Amino acid sequence: MSTDLTLHQRRRTPTPSELQGIPWLRVLKPEERARAVAELKVGDAASGDYVCRVGKPVTYWFGVVEGLLKMSSDDAQGTTMTFSGLPPGGWFGEGTALKREPYRYNVQALRKSVVAGLSVDSFHWLLDHSIGFNRFVMNQLNERLGQFIAAREIDRMNSPDVRVARSLAALFNPALYPGVGEILRITQQELAYLVGLSRQRVNKALANLQAQGSIRIEYGGLRVLDLDALRSSMVSSKS
DNA sequence: TCATTAAATTGTT
DNA sequence: AACAATTTAATGA
Known about the structure:
Elements: E1 11-12, H1 16-20, H2 30-39, E2 41-45, E3 50-52, E4 60-66, E5 69-74, E6 80-86, E7 91-92, H3 94-99, E8 106-109, E9 113-119, H4 120-129, H5 131-156, H6 160-171, E10 183-184, H7 188-195, H8 199-211, E11 215-218, E12 221-224, H9 227-231
Antiparallel strand pairs: 1-2, 2-9, 3-8, 4-7, 4-9, 5-6, 5-8, 10-12, 11-12
Helix pairs in contact: 5-6, 6-8, 7-8
The chain binds a DNA duplex through residues 187-189, 199-200, 203-204, 207, 217, 219-220.
């Protein structure tokens, strides 16, 4: 089920509409932006494809233009632990790109996706030349720290409804994933993989959240009606 | 553009 | 895990 590193093969230059979905381009000055755009590559990843794997040397700083990726890691026993989902607008790998160390996690496409990449050299060039870019990366690191702390709390609770609610809230984080608007394109099966629950249970949890008025279920996706309600959702599993 | 068919996704047991 | 119902996407006239 796992083909390898599609991005390194058939990569294109980004289309204008794809560039539109790259949030940090807007914080660059015209010269910086021109240079970055020239260096950007995009590639298509089929469902199951790996974007990066543990131990591989860092080649790119990656971003999701379209689709859905998941970030996970396998321990010595081969148990897979999913850290986070990566919806459109999300960029990752800055930690390893900064230090030019090998990747510490696997990133795999949950569905057919479009992934953008900026070479590590260009990434460093922007760090050396652009204040705006530095602010973006710093904010990105800070937001992600918040995400991981929240993720630990999520793992400790055993109420499925709350787990689903909090995980959804994370995916709708506008700072980290500006490409996600009112609606998040994600199937209940994909969400089940991310949260670590059965699809049936996720289906039920979503129904509860909808009844509570914080989301609306749509075919192939979800619409957020009340993000704060998702973030602070308490245990109310009357299923 | 519309009708038909296949595929994907959801709701339920 | 399996099934039926629903929605979307694809096809071709």
